[in-house]
Write a structure and sequence with these properties.
Blueprint: H1 11-22, H2 34-37, H3 85-94, H4 103-111, H5 114-124, H6 131-143, H7 151-156, H8 164-173, E1 198-199, E2 230-231, H9 253-263, E3 278-279, E4 282-283, H10 287-297, H11 303-307
Helix pairs in contact: 1-5, 1-6, 3-6, 8-10, 9-10
């Protein structure tokens, strides 16, 4: 696992981070926590809703991405606006439509807690607290959210074998003349299920930049070539993370696969990888092959991950999970 040079993971730091991740005191009115939008049983995604709700019922503008295997991510958020987990952690805490936290208030609350005195002492060797410590601890916890025990992983470890349908689905996904998924969703020599890069997958028709309803990564610097470009999510844990796409508009894996089969839209800046092996408005796969792909994708679901007590809510009576 890639290790942060400025925030190495320790057992004590990750445990502090777990408490903070599930504690609503980080929000302005102590009503929501990080776990309110990133729910373990949904692979730390937002669950069945297209948009999570923050303070005062404000809805997020994009579907909540799941949290797992983040240490290997090249950027965070749908638009890839930040490069580190620490930067990702800090943004929703103070965002006025998410947690709307105030660091002075948060630290005052933490300083009143004997529990946190003990946890901070174990993690950082001091009962003194600051915002950087909070961010580092949550980031450490998030780095421990590793999903690596799906049936697919068992096959890689030679503890299990694919069924015929699953193996044929795996072949189609990695065949450039058929599924052609491997350029964005790596499942051959790389088990992460994503390159971690950004892509414009032709989800919205766009003859010009003004046609985009969400400009995605283009918002970072106004570069129109990046309009409609979003982070490529992992194929792991799809059974738990519906709905799909940045706007949460596709409700099932079947809908996603049919989009890639025949629903790709023309865009002036579509990712060129979408043109490889494609035909007309989609990739060259049959309905029968879609079923085989779905069978393979279901081998990527990690049931141990969504039930792991090391990642669970340490406050069973508090709002969060």
């Amino acid at each position: 696992m890639p290790v942060s040079e400025v925030n190495s993971v320790t057992k004590e730091g990750a445990e502090l981070g777990r408490f903070l991740f599930y504690d609503p005191l980080l929000s302005s009115d102590s009503s929501i926590s990080c776990a309110s939008c990133h729910i373990q049983k949904y692979a730390f995604s937002g669950g069945p809703v297209s948009f999570s709700k923050g303070i005062a019922e404000f809805e997020t503008v994009r579907n909540t991405l799941p949290l797992f295997n983040l240490a290997w991510n090249k950027s965070m958020f749908w638009d890839g606006r930040v490069k580190t987990i620490e930067d990702q952690v800090s943004i929703p805490i103070i965002d006025h439509k998410e947690m709307h936290g105030d660091w002075n208030v948060i630290l005052e609350r933490l300083n009143k807690s004997e529990r946190y005195d003990s946890l901070f002492m174990s993690a950082f060797g001091s009962t003194e607290k600051d915002s950087l410590m909070v961010i580092k601890a949550i980031a450490q916890f998030e780095r421990t959210l590793i999903s690596a025990n799906s049936r697919f992983d068992s096959v890689l470890r030679r503890e299990a074998v694919f069924t015929k349908e699953e193996f044929e689905g795996f072949e189609i996904v990695n065949d450039q003349t058929r599924g052609n998924c491997l350029h964005c969703h790596t499942t051959d020599a790389n088990a992460l299920g994503t390159t971690g890069l950004l892509s414009n997958n032709g989800f919205q028709k766009a003859n010009r930049k003004e046609d985009y309803s969400d400009i995605g990564a283009g918002a970072r610097n106004g570069d129109s070539s990046l309009y409609g470009w979003f982070k490529i999510p992992s194929l792991r844990n799809l059974a738990f993370t519906a709905p799909y796409m940045h706007n949460g508009s596709l409700t099932s894996i079947d809908e996603v696969l049919k989009f890639y089969q025949s629903g790709i839209q023309y865009a002036y800046n579509i990712d060129s990888k979408l043109l490889l092996g494609s035909h007309h408005s989609g990739v060259n796969i049959t309905d029968d092959e879609l079923l085989k792909i779905e069978a393979f994708l279901n081998t990527l679901n990690d049931f141990d991950f969504i039930q792991n007590p090391k990642f669970s809510n340490p406050f069973p009576t508090k709002k969060g999970n």
